């Protein structure tokens, strides 16, 4: 392949990627511009709404006053961080054991982890709901957090990451008197920060945007998560005809996820690449 052909091929690839990126970003751009545009001008005929300061004040003011959106986002932060901490606390030692320790039944346990990846979250909903109801935990943080405290995806991801770790370092740590738990937390965890970053984004985005489970276990508006709060805003009639305020709420709910991804993008990509080995 000549230099000209190689450049043309690279240019065509970038053009296709840029076109796909624009198509994916355009709805979010429209949402942002609509949240800054007066309600009467959003559907004025132009492809993209024209933002104004008065429109931004009106829409964001309505979004924050019509529903306790900040409360919903606070619930999301508490629940997502608690779930993430519990998932990592379980997944690190489990992934280390499956990757580096020899014990009877290890292949069976690894197979169970892989099988768990195939089970839809809707399957165990009824028994978990009944257990939470009989325990009096509905409409509580416990109902939103405890069912997700173990993630088979996290266990598998960390197991894949730990497989590539040199055994010589672990043998040296054992000679220095480290226990297996000490090795998992003091050696493996610091080395696994890219995997932690990758999984953190997956976990936080999944539970921040989760509409299904909060809808099942919560009826009290004070316990609603961000996505359920936006749906509540629309169903309650506040956002049915006020597209600008609804888009403003969507921007406020989406912005933390975008900021998180931009902040951890480098570690996210590195963790996925290393976890493939």
TrEMBL record:
The chain crosses the membrane at residues 12-33, 72-96, 108-130, 142-162, 183-208, 243-263. It comes from the Bacteria. One of its GO terms (biological process) is transmembrane transport. It is a multi-pass membrane protein. CDD domains: TM_PBP2. InterPro entries: MetI-like (IPR000515), MetI-like_sf (IPR035906). It holds the Pfam family BPD_transp_1. GO terms for cellular component: plasma membrane. It is found in: Cell inner membrane; Cell membrane. Residues 73-264 form the ABC transmembrane type-1 domain. Keywords: Cell inner membrane, Cell membrane, Membrane, Sugar transport, Transmembrane, Transmembrane helix, Transport. Belongs to the binding-protein-dependent transport system permease family. Part of the ABC transporter complex UgpBAEC involved in sn-glycerol-3-phosphate (G3P) import. Probably responsible for the translocation of the substrate across the membrane. The complex is composed of two ATP-binding proteins (UgpC), two transmembrane proteins (UgpA and UgpE) and a solute-binding protein (UgpB). This is sn-glycerol-3-phosphate transport system permease protein UgpE.
